[in-house]
Please model this.
Amino acid sequence: MSKGVIAALANGLVFVTGKGGVGKSAVAAALSLALAEAGRRTLLLGIDPRENLHEWLGVAPSGGERLAIAPGLVLESLRPRLLIDREVETRMPIRLLARQLLAHPLYHQFVDGAPGLEELVVLAYVERCLHGEFDVVVLDGAASGHALGQLLAPALVAEAVRGGPFARLAARLRGLVSDPRRCRTVLVTTAEEMPAAETFELAEELTAAIGVPAALLVINQLAPDDLPVARAGEAAPLVLWRRRLARQQRERERLRSGWSGAVTELPWLPLPRGAALAHALAEWLAAAPEAPA
Model:
């Protein structure tokens, strides 16, 4: 596999996050397509109950079932609560006792109130999938305001539960998210003031919390700055376009100058939301070098 963005993300967990509206899910879908095209056995994993990832791959919602999208690419939308219930059933050999526990109000109170438990079981599922079944799992994470909690879940559970199987699981998954060889975070942003500021803040928090910097910054939806029609004329739309391009260039330079890791850029493309756009972005990512800031 040639060196580049896709080669750098070709193994382990790829955790994709970013401020709402910057194209996080589109980038997650595009990365998955590019990884599968490069020959990696890829699982694209969503945890949003709305199942928005199917739109980017041109398939109907699966209701939680796995869908084979292309050679080497599988899509799955997880239900974290169901994962917890299955974990209980697996660890309790007597089915009657398991059913009684799952029906008990105290069990529901515990699951609803336990900090980080749902996030922990998602990471545990990722870990299992990476043991032989898939080369890489692309997790379309929560928006930046909640992403940190997903990666901090093992530490939270480890502090709350001092012994037993969940404590051992939390310790093991803490090692997963803090290992840059097995877990890589991709931050998606646009060249706008608020998304850029939120991206820098999240990057600092991630490094402080898990000790590993983000693996890649994706600057998405960059408008073309070389349109001849935008350079001349005083019509109001042209003036507004030039102002937008000037703001974009300022934020683009701020992102690049303030970022110490790898950066790649994706253009704004005149395509509707959906599979055609995801495939086009996948082609850009496949050709992108692993560029420093």
The radius of gyration is 21 Å. The domain at 5-292 is CATH 3.40.50.300 (Rossmann fold). DSSP finds twelve helices and nine strands in the chain.
